[in-house]
Structures are given as C-alpha cells and as structure tokens.
Specification:
single chain, 8 helices, 30% helix, 12-stranded mixed sheet, Aminopeptidase, 309 residues, alpha+beta
Length: 309
C-alpha cells in the first residue's frame, strides 16, 4: 500500500467530485460540490497560486489539501493550508505527506507564515502541534433545522428601508462589492484581508456557482445596500450563510438581522432543509443573533499557525 500526493486536476470530474466527497465526510458543516471545486481551481486569482492536492493510495483518493497564498492581505507572506483526510483512511500517512508537500510549495512561493483550520478534537490538535503549528483563535460551526425548526416571523422593514435580493443587482453588482469590502475589514481573523479588486471579486464571489443571488438578501437604504446576508447552496437541500454584515453608517438598527431572516425564510420556501453558518468564537453579537434564529453549535475549529524558516 503506497500513498502518493499529486495535484488535483480541475478538469477531471473524478478528482473534483472525490475532493468534494472527502471534504463532506470530514467537514459536513461546509458546502462544497465537485462543480465548485473545479470552479475554484479555474478561477482563482493568479497571485493566490491556489493548487489543491490529493492523497492517493493504490488509485483511491483518501486525502485533500487546499494550498495557496492569501493574496488579498496587506501583509505579504501569509499562506493557507487546510488538510482533510477520509475519516476511514486515517493513520496511513496521507495527512503528513500532504502537509510536507504543501509546506514545500508554499515556502518556494515566499510564504513565511502558514495558517490552517483544525477541528477542535484531541487527535486533530495533536496532529497540528506535532507538525509545529501553534493554536490561535477559534470559531464555531452552527446548524439550523430549516425543515422542522421555527424561524422568527418576517417583519416589515422600518421606514426608509427596502428588502431586495442580490439578483436585483445583476446589472451592476458594484454596490454589493463595496459593502462586502467594507464589512470584511471588521471580520475577526488572524490575517487581515482587503477587497480592492472588483474583477477578482466578480470571479471569486459574485459568479461562484454556490452563491445564490435569489437567496442573498440585501437591506437597501436610500437606494444603496446597507446590510446583507450572502447565501450559498448545494442546489439540493443544504444552505449556508457565508457572510452577514452591515455598513458602519447603518449599524445598530437591526438591518443584518432583518436581511438574514429574509434570506432564511426564502431558503425554507425554496425547499432547503439544513442551514449552516460559522462564527468567530469571540464575535458575541453575531453569535447572539444566530442563537435568536435557533442555530446551535455543531462543531468548533481552531486556527493553527506555523512560521517558516
């Protein structure tokens, strides 16, 4: 039995579907499909040097790694590495081989610090620490039963506020880009990021196959987006909120909660049965909002960091 690591071939369905399958088994709280894996490879920004890896044992795919540079950070030298192995194929050396291969690639690209997310389980944390990574901030995955849960009732928007969807901005999504860029600056993270490239945002966010324009709700004030809740879906039963935020000038008015409630009701009406989201463990206000909706923590992960050289 020999384990090898190779680059994922984005044009090969067996690779992209296999990658998505392993990720779903290891991390069922995140939405990913073979189509989205292929899209991410084909449309990643050149400066990200995004190259997913696969671990293979005698022709069977048993492990995955997302590898690249955080190109949109004002701080150079940050790389990311996220390794997930098939839960029934642990202990065969796939994880360690993926880590060493990825670290060599990132070092060659000039990375001086590598960030990775690790599930908050003893074995996962021990694996990261064995490879020289140190723990940092934590975050929660949350789940809501859309099929059987009770959502808060829909409320009429306050005076001067209008609820729309991202689909209403199809002709000119730039206002949503500007709102997304502003809210990203306040997103808790170990790595600062900035959205400054509209064309890159169109490729990586707006045109992404998982993003649902019809389920992404936007609170509009004076004709401009003031708050939004961005939704992704696997096209079947699963729905995920990937970003909810409010422009600084409009905070404290409950607009993010208004937009998210509208999006959740739209998702349930569309037949989606499971809702997922994620929150930094220190983001008390957003955790409180999600608790109000009925979300429950279903897993926790921890950022681990390793400095190279």
């Amino acid at each position: 039995m020999t384990v090898i690591v190779r680059e994922l071939l984005g044009e090969v369905p067996a690779d992209t579907e296999g990658f998505a399958h392993i990720r779903h088994l290891a991390l069922p709280f995140m939405i990913q499909t073979g189509e989205s894996v292929a899209y991410d490879v084909a449309h990643a920004h050149p400066d990200a040097h995004y190259r997913p890896l696969l671990a293979e044992e005698d022709g069977e795919l048993i492990g995955t790694a997302q590898v690249g540079l955080v190109y949109d950070s004002p701080d150079p030298g940050n790389g990311h590495l996220h390794v997930y192995v098939h839960p029934e194929r642990l202990g065969r050396g796939a994880g360690s081989l993926l880590v060493s291969t990825a670290e060599e690639r990132l070092a060659a690209l000039g990375a001086t610090k590598i960030h990775t997310w690790v599930l908050d389980r003893p074995a996962n944390r021990a694996f990261a620490e064995k490879h020289g990574y140190r723990a940092s901030r934590s975050a929660h995955f949350l789940r809501l039963d859309l099929a059987n849960g009770t959502l808060p009732p829909l409320e009429a928007p306050p005076k001067g506020v209008e609820l729309r969807t991202a689909a209403d901005f199809a002709d000119d999504p730039r206002p949503l880009f500007e709102l997304d860029a502003e809210t990203l600056l306040d997103e808790p993270s170990d790595v600062d990021r900035e959205f400054t490239d509209f064309e890159a945002w169109l490729e990586e966010t707006w045109n992404h196959p998982l993003l649902s324009h019809d389920l992404t709700s936007v609170a509009v004030v004076d004709g401009r987006p003031a708050a939004f809740s961005a939704a992704r879906t696997d096209g079947a039963t699963r729905y995920g909120t990937v970003m909810t935020g409010t422009a600084r000038a409009h905070r404290g008015r409950g607009l993010a909660k208004l937009a998210k409630n509208d999006s959740l009701h739209r998702a349930r009406a569309a037949g989606l049965t499971e809702a997922f989201t994620g929150n930094d463990a220190g983001n008390g206000p957003m955790l409180a909002i999600n608790k109000w909706f009925g979300y429950e923590v279903c897993a926790t992960e921890v950022t681990y960091v390793r400095e190279l050289g």
